[in-house]
Amino acid sequence: MIIDSSFESCKLLSKKIYKSIKLTAMKKHFTNSIWLPALLATMLGFSISSCKEVPKEKANLAVLASVQGYGRGGTQVNPLNDGEIPNEVSEQQRNWMMQAAEQANQPQYRRYNRLVSQTIEYRWANPVCIDEVQLYWFNYEGLAKFPQAQRLSYWDGEQFTPVSNAQGYGLENDQFNTTTFNEVTTTRLRLELDSLPRYPATLLEWKVMKTLNSPAVAPLVTAGIDRDVMIGGNTYLSAEIKAVDPVKNIRWSAKGPGKVRFSDPKALETTASVSAPGKYILTLSAQSGKMKAESDLELIAHYPPQEERLDVVYTKRYKINSPLWNERAKVLITSWIPWCVAQCERTDLTQGQGGLDNFVEAAKALRGKPHGRHLGYVFSNAWVHQTVESMCIALMVDPQGDKEIIAAQNKMKKTLEKWIPIILSAQEPDGYLHTAYTLRDTTRWTSRWSPRNRGDHEGYVAGYFIESAINHYTLTEGQDTRLYEAAKKLSDCWVKNIGPGPDQVEWYDGHQEMEQALVRFGRFVNDMEGDGKGDSYIALAKFLLDMRNNGSEYDQSHVPVQQQYEAVGHAVRAVYNYSAMSDVAAETGDIDYQSAVMSLWNNMINKKYYVTGGVGSGETSEGFGPNYSLRNSAYCESCSSCGLIFFQHKMNIAYHDAKYADLYEETMYNALLGSLDFEGKHFYYTNPLTAYNGRDAWHVCPCCVGNIPRTLLMIPTWTYVTGKDGIYVNMYVGSTIKVERVAGTDVEMVQETDYPWKGEVSIIVNPKEDKRFTVYVRVPNRKTSELYTSVPELNTLKSLSVNGETVEMKADRGYIAITRDWKKGDHIDLEIPLEVQQITADEKIEALSGLTALRYGPMIYNVEKADNKDINLAVGSEPFEAVWRDDMFKGIVGIEGKWADGSELLAIPNYLRMNRIQPRQEGQRSPESMVWMKQ
Known about the structure:
Strand content: 25-35%
Number of helices: 18
Distance between the termini: 43 Å
Oligomer: single chain
Structural class: alpha+beta
Helix content: 25-40%
Largest sheet: 10 strands, antiparallel
């Protein structure tokens, strides 16, 4: 139907759209809903009302639309309706796109230049009257080609119909091209482009112009991000309204179990507080003309932590007695860490440069001697400090007579004696330590802690140095304090120079790590020396976090941290930021921090979390995408898994809740353990769930190489935490670990288990002296995220006893508390149910529609080409079975079943994936390994 601007034709179209919507509503049983008559009245009112004053310029209705793209064209659909004039795009961005276009025209990329078609569609919540579009084309100085044909069509209530009397369809470069047509009233407009290159996008902006004599259009209201809030604190509302007509009647309202108080219910930016825990819906409404719009956000209210935070169990000398962990620890100690040492000592690397040599040259510069330039990334000190920390922790592992481990540890002792003086020689007299600064180009980098140089990772590398000092101190049991004293000197330098004082700077780093390290170090100094000597370091960590504002989502500085409710930006920076925030919240009791931390945790785990325990879809630079956008080509950087484990551990300490231990166990066994290959010679920087390529021996950015072993080997820290009244058992690893300061005594905890292959666990409790305290036994719950459902559900123990006597299995926050007078030799025996679970994902995750995955215990499983005829088949209907396989990887539990065609299906743990890949053939695009299979 072609519509002109007359009263009758607009009314006819409104009735036609209404009829279509009504039929749909009847099919969905919504005919009794109040929205249907309201929508009819709205549409008819929209059609028959008239504006008293005709605007002089047409308004761009595209800014009120949602945008969808179809096909494989190069157009990036999201920015097309942002309302920005392409000429205002930065020169840097335009240059980058021109380089991309030039690359696409190179012969080797010829296959990417085949012509394709694309459809882009705008959708409005209410009907709009339009008669013109404006398209901005840019061919990157002739490097890219425009489409050969364009077509506009609108939704007439039943189908898409071409616009009538279209005039224009121009392709003038670097400007808006106007196309006019007979006025239409619609809720959807489609632009079809034919014969355009796949890459890069030549359409930069698409405006849709409102007819001059048409009535007001409802504003586009966005209430904000779903979030959590603590009772007694505020949630910070920052809503947005986009409109092309004057807006009136802006107002917040709320529904929920308690009272909601808005500081200003008519303001877009305001605060709200609630009186009772539970779920609330906060609604922002606004109106243009007679058209009203509203938007909701969900607010979940909690009581803040009611108890004091738990205490960390420092990693000290311990023994592993677990088939899986003994084998993995040996690989780390005898293969991977020595490889990292060797790479850091090399001076001939062509990628991933910047090891020990930078410290040598920085020391020369400090002595006023001729020196070389800084090599590698500005943050290359990080993998040296991480490797130092990894060696320290590896030396705390009891070799139990293993000659290979003993030999590797002896070499590590010698390496530390060689490295420590070299590292300390690069520390400046006042304690500052960053070789990239010492060896800097002074014309570009004029001073420390300057806003211009936020990207130079001053705090990032300093934080890793501080953390390495903690584990060196515990390794030597305080007998060697060289790194410890140097870390205090560095921290004191930062405390002196950064802060609110007149002689201090207000600053934050572009890559977080120092914040987490300062709290960790402050607690450690207080535990070692007492008298609050570490408090200034914790205060500085909070100050560095509080300074984050007016920056970008990329490094989580877009708004104050207390007002951050969604996980955004670079995933490693994010989880380090959130880990530090949870530390500060626990230390200070700051309610706004607690609200933000819980919101960020909730958003990440229940909307942006992979089933493997990884985070970071890679849709932003190495970071998070939108909610529920969890593609299987995941980024899941190994460093983000390390940071996420720290974050979950801090949440466990703050909230005394086992679910956080469930989560970091999941990340440990799946996202992180498998970042190294079985032989410990190659690693993954990223960890996609559908894998095509093997691991790397080294990397152009080897930031994960030392982070992986330092995190995996901190087994005592992840296995236990302590409270005033006892010990919390968080992980089940065959081990002997001394837990200090439990009800006034030390307790040796001995676990005997073959978990996760078997569910039986025996814990022998050996207090130094007989004492009454509580042992909190974690009950593993495989429901770690709302995003995934596992069948059967497993969230209890099969059995629990102490010295052979049955214990009532009544859990609180995931722990069963056993309080008694403990004496040496008392033993807790429990059995964890281990069954094959079949997993499906929330329907909101489009990438996982119609797919299923497998779990056994804490482990996610993969199917691989090496074991299966065709991993692209659907799974069969027969039940899956867990089977012990002596013939694979020195013994593992595999999962066996059938594919839909009756062929044998074998799945292996995700951490063992991609160890048996064949050389790839030219043009091969099928995956070698994947988590999610067709149902």
